[in-house]
Amino acid sequence: MKKLLSLFLVFCFFLPSCNKDDYKEKCFLDFKLGMKEFEFGKISKQLTLQGLLQEKAVKKPYEADKYIALYQFQNINRNGFLDPIFLTDRLDVLRIFIGKHPDIGETQKATIKEYQGVVEYFSEIYGAPSKSTKDSKTEHRSTIWNAGDFDVIVAFIPMYDLTGDQIGIYFEPIGELKVKLEEYNRQKKEEWKKMRFINYRLQH
Known about the structure:
Blueprint lengths: L1 H11 L24 H13 L4 E5 L7 E8 L4 E9 L4 E8 L13 H15 L4 E4 L6 E6 L3 E8 L8 E8 L1 H29 L1
Antiparallel strand pairs: 1-2, 2-3, 3-4, 4-8, 5-6, 6-7, 7-8
């Protein structure tokens, strides 16, 4: 038991860490790739109180209510629903989708005109895109901006997930930020694995 406790205390000194300075740039509103999950939730609540985000409850039988944050793109008068990705406990990718989502009352599929409106929205923020593509057969389109340590990708996705045409907006880390997040996640998963082992040994 003493040996396990000593291992646990030593292990705590080597938890993966990242300085706040590693994640300086905001990718959308006040969100930053690499921010802690609890910070993401805290900022979501603040933005909701400020009226910049809306919060919708998704109610399903026998499940706890799930809350989805919505952002209104005023130039196209459509809501985008935020879908953050946390591979461990930091924000790895921020996704926003525009299109059908029956659980929150969105019944209309996205259109190419709305896609063009979203491209204009981000062009005002990030300037001219670095790349644009269009598939004449499928109508799939994408526009990409490089924003320093992350890319902003806006895609028009025909028949996304059988829910109809959808617009996807992706904030994805690149370069040094991507490397830092990958290393952090690798260390964090190893930490969780060791913690599960220690808990198991303490209980048996």
